[in-house]
Amino acid sequence: MARLPRRTLLRGSLYGAAVSVGLPFLDCFLDNNGTALAATGAPLPVCFGSWFWGCGTNPGNWKPGKVGAGYEMRGDFAPLQKFQKKMNVISGTNVVLDDKQLLVHFTGSVGISAGSAPRGFDTTPPTVDTLIADVIGKKTRFKSIEVCCTGNPIHTQSRREGNQLNPGEATPLALYTRIFGSGFIDPNAANFLPDPKALLRQSALSAVSESRKDFEKTLGANDRQRLDQYFTSLRELEQGVEAELQKPAPLESCTVPSGDVNAKSANSEIEAVTTNHRLFAGLLAHALACGQTRVVNMVFGDSNSSLRRAGESQTHHIYTHEEPSDPKTGYQSNVGWFVGRCMGGLATFLETLDGVREGDSTLLDRMGLLIFTDTSYARYHSIHDMPIMTAGRAGGRLKTGLHVAADGDPSSRLGLTLQQAYGLPISVWGTDSMRTTKTITDIVA
Amino acid sequence: MRKKMFSRCLTLTAGAVCAAALAMAPSTHGVVAAETSEAGPAAVRVLGATQYRQTIADIFGRSIEIGGRFAPGVRDEGLLEVGTSRASIAASSLEQYDIMARSIAAQVVDPQHRDMLISCKPATPTATDDACASKFLGEVGQLLFRRPLTNAELAKQVTVAATAAQSSNDFYAGLANSLASMLISPEFLFRKEIAVPESAKAGAWKLDTYSKASRLSFMLWNAPPDRELLAAAADGSLDTKAGLERQADRMLRSSRLTAGVRALFADMLQLDKFETISKDPKIYPQYTPDISVEAADQTLRTISDSVLAGGDYRDLFTTRKTYLTPLLASIYGVAINNPNGGWQAYEYPEGDPRAGILTQVSFVALHSHPGRTSPTLRGRALREVFLCQRVPDPPGDVDFKFVDDTSNPTYRTARARLSAHAAAPACAGCHKMTDPLGLSMEQFDSSGAFRTVENETEIDVSGDLNGKPFKGAAAMGQALKEDPALPACIVRRVLSYGVGRRLSRDETAFLNTLTADFSGDKYSVKKLMRRIVTDPQFYRVAPPEVVVGLASEPSVATKLAKSGE
After folding, report:
1. pLDDT of amino acid B551
2. Cβ within 8 Å of B, A 287-306
3. Which of A160, A313, A325, A334 to mutate to test the interface with B (most CBs of B within 10 A)?
4. Closest Cα of chain A to B162: distance in Å?
5. Strand A145-148 to strand A159-160: parallel, antiparallel, or no bridges (unpaired)?
6. What pLDDT sits at residue B433?
7. A155 — contact with chain B (CB < 8 Å)?
8. Residue spans of beta strands (DSSP E) within A149-300
9. Cβ-defined contact of B400 to A2 (cutoff 8 Å)
10. Nearest CA-CA distance, residue B27 and chain A, Å
11. Number of structural domains, chain B?
12. I need a surface site. Which of A117, B34, B93, B251 has the fewest CB within 10 A?
């Protein structure tokens, strides 16, 4: 028998009398409040997420009148008033094109999430969720989980370098199976026994990982970069298996949902999207509460919103371009209806996260959510004065309940601020005129 | 992503930009200028979903179930197959490949399959057996990696199997572990092509024989090389003209060519999009998800029938022959006498508004909105898919106020609404490219059903192509048939599909030769495929890129060049 590298051998030992498993990272109990790990006093891990809707808002019908604390969620954002104290509204920022063409329904969202006005559809820098996941998602079973409520995996807004998509789960049942099917370990189970199959799996993955040098040696630079992505994915898979082999700390708020996922067929009809989004929200909340991931990315409606009402030939997007403004209000009524449904969905998501009690606080409190869209006024594809929000206190790292009114600053300021809040050692972020060093200090705790 | 964003926005676009695009439109042969200045490099392609399935079926048989989600493809230059050389595998997708790998491996070694699929038996099933493991893993590894495993690779896999077998006291568990490892490895999930110097031509490079076998096999069968082709690669006969032609002709005669032709056209016609489109059931109650599946199949049957028989490619746009199921017949509004269900050959009567694949559900429903048609989407798809012409994306600052007045009775039809768009200077240029084609298909609603009125107004289906007027989709098919850009485009598509990347400028001459030959071959796609796969040019590649900063030892390319291999 040939000799096996030490790494593979260590990971491949199993079924033997003395199974050696790495020390559990969370081998301890929560404090009495359920908000901290008793052994270390450290707070529950901070989580991050994004929530996206397409086609923006009715301009003039969302921005709070008051700046600072005590603002009111109004107009299109009225459904969010209940969570006003746990949210921030950021107004007055722009996505700046410089000499680049406006890629409609794309430039705006990339400007916010990746700090760049891209030159093409495949030249985007990584989105902020992946940068944060690289820091906080290393020891969980899933580095991040993406969901697309419209049923199309490529509607995702999460991308690695060069537009490498992190495709979204398209159905609640698929998401349930992925999280709570094979490989799930209930952190509150009385006994923990590492699954021998997970050790086998680990050795199989290690063997692949060790082949990297051989595979890459004849590749050019571009292909090498693509393979880097593959091997990064492989490493994440290995980390997920490592997490399965460690005894998880009990998590008071973790409950395992039933597999009775009564979803609607996945498509862009608004009632189906709303129902599936509610189911997705519940599953993601369970996944976060049970320590399966720390980063979730939800797409409620796609960019270039294909949301539609049953029986209508018009979609949300078509309304943004073709609906006349109501002479009395000055706004597009049907567009407002769709934005309202999107915000209603967001309210449901926040309610779900906030409904998971963790001692004196909630799951939402240890989340930081970036809430964004692809355009401010879809009728003209405007990317000025982008409507952006955050929700959650990121475990005390962010202040909430504020309306921050910027004065034409690049929308990348929020991405910079969030990365810094999550401990990324950066002082500047973005490209060209989207490059910024200005943290939004108002919301930093 | 790009296409999605396009959607309804396509109704807006800048005239100046479109004028430039029209200027790029095909000249004599309809060849769009090449995009890159480098010679075509050897490609590293992600294995596609159907290719993955076919590989597993070829090696282990169809009783092995494959569950899981494949990574969504990225279409580039009109083809997913071109996108595979630019894509990678995200973590959530690799997670799915891992699930599939473990499931497949477990099935292969389970008691129902092991005697049939594993050609040796261990001395005892509760212990390691390196000889048997080596035999199995060597055989299977060659088919998975599309080349023989190196000694080091095989030794490693045997060790992985042995370690797991020792730990679990189960030879088969060990074998499954090693198999799962290979199924998730980059050697399997990526089709890596290797360049070697061409001995007959100084400074020229070509694919090594195994890479050549793969390119040939995936092109014709959408499947990895079979044992015979691998043997021809191993003994070098594939590198001879006669050997290559022998293998190509064998494969062209095989019934497996059907799968290859279907894969090529499914990719070109973007039929994968049927997986994510839906129709509003209140507006189109007759359109069920099964319609999507059967509509795609109908078109592929129509095409493969013609291609395999050596038919004229251009006839696909005028043919009255097709296949129908009872379900499809209900959408088409025709009666078929098929009490047993299933597929039945059908021919539309002469003069019927339906003729050619563009009047089939697979085109008119795919390029429509869920609740209404889109002449612009249809026109754009026609230009881009079949004529290889690029319709620019719409500008971002167009004012739509001119369509605000929807109560205006002049906007009752798509033609009227689009006329309003076209009246705006910023929109006119591109709409001239798309709308005259798309509007001629307006008698087919978003579900593909035939109609003559919209909002109680008779639909006008007049259109034109390159200044030639016509009325209706069937006549448009005839006009298209006479457009030289049509055959030039399919040549470009087939070649791009085969090499799996954007074509380089250096390949323009090859492209033009193939286009001329295509005409001489009476536009037979089957003959075109043969010409491509038997031409040494198909296997030529640019010299490998030397990556700065790698290990100090000379690159493989340098070593080979020095040794004269």
Report:
1. 40
2. 302-304, 306
3. A313
4. 8
5. unpaired
6. 83
7. yes
8. 159-160, 164-165, 295-299
9. no
10. 27
11. 1
12. B34
> Would you say A421 and A393 are in contact if contact means Cβ atoms under 8 Å apart?
no
What is the domain extent for residue A435?
Answer: 6-12+48-192+247-443
pLDDT along chain B (565 residues), means of 10: 36 37 37 44 94 97 91 91 93 93 97 96 96 98 97 96 95 97 97 92 90 98 98 97 98 98 98 90 90 97 98 98 94 86 92 95 95 92 95 70 51 72 72 88 95 88 91 95 97 97 89 97 98 96 68 39 37
Contact B92 A380 (CB under 8 A): no
Q: Based on the structure, what is the number of domains in chain A?
A: 1
> What phi, psi does B252 have (nearest 5°)?
-70, -25
Q: Specify the pLDDT at position B428.
A: 75
Q: Which of residues 366-425 of A touch B (CB under 8 A)?
A: 379-381
Name the E strands within A197-294. Answer: none
For residue A40 the two structure tokens come to 């270390």
* E strand or H helix at A47: strand A47-52
**How far are the Cα atoms of A60, B86, B331, B528 from residue B316, in angstroms, in the given order?**
53, 31, 21, 16
Could you tell me if A368 and A443 are in contact, meaning their C-beta atoms sit under 8 angstroms apart?
Answer: no
Decide if B80 is inside a domain: yes
Which of residues 92 through 151 in chain B touch A, CB cutoff 8 A? 92-95, 98-99, 102, 128, 130
Residues B185, A211: C-beta atoms closer than 8 Å: yes
CA neighbor of A279 nearest in space, from A395, A180, A393: A180
User: Rounded CA gap, A133 and B407, in Å?
Assistant: 51
CB–CB of A4 and B163 under 8 A? yes
A183 touches A198 (CB < 8 A): yes
Query: Residue B112 sits in which domain range?
Result: 46-192
- Chain A interface test: which of B17, B126, B163, B393 (most A C-beta within 10 Å): B163
In-domain check, residue B459: no
Nearest CA to B286 out of B322, B323, B326, B321 is that of: B326
Phi-psi region of A247 (alpha: psi -120 to 50; beta: other; left: phi over 0): beta
Sign of CA dihedral A89, A125, A379, A317: negative
**A146 in reach of chain B (CB within 8 A):** yes
**CATH code (residue A99):** 3.40.720
Q: Which residues of chain A fall short of a pLDDT of 70? A: 1-42
Residues 213-252 of A with CB under 8 A from B: 215, 217-221, 223-224, 226-227, 229-234, 236-237, 240
Tokens matching residue A242: 């490592």
DSSP helix/strand/coil, B339: coil
Contact list in B for residue A326 (CB cut-off 8 A) is none
B152 lies in some domain: yes
Q: What is the pLDDT of residue B563?
A: 38
- Interchain proximity A324–B406, CB inside 8 Å: yes
pTM metric for this prediction: 0.84
B396 in A contact zone (CB under 8 Å): yes
> Would A419 be classed as within a structural domain?
yes
Question: A350 to each of A134, A342, A374, B3, B160, how far by Cα in Å?
Answer: 24, 12, 21, 32, 47
- For B67, which residue in chain A has the nearest alpha carbon? A174
A90 vs A412, A417, B157, B486, CA distance in Å?
11, 12, 55, 51
Pick from B72, B177, B369: CB nearest A153:
B72
**Do A1 and B159 lie within an 8 Å CB cutoff?**
yes
Residue B107 lies in a domain: yes
Q: What pLDDT is recorded for position A6?
A: 38
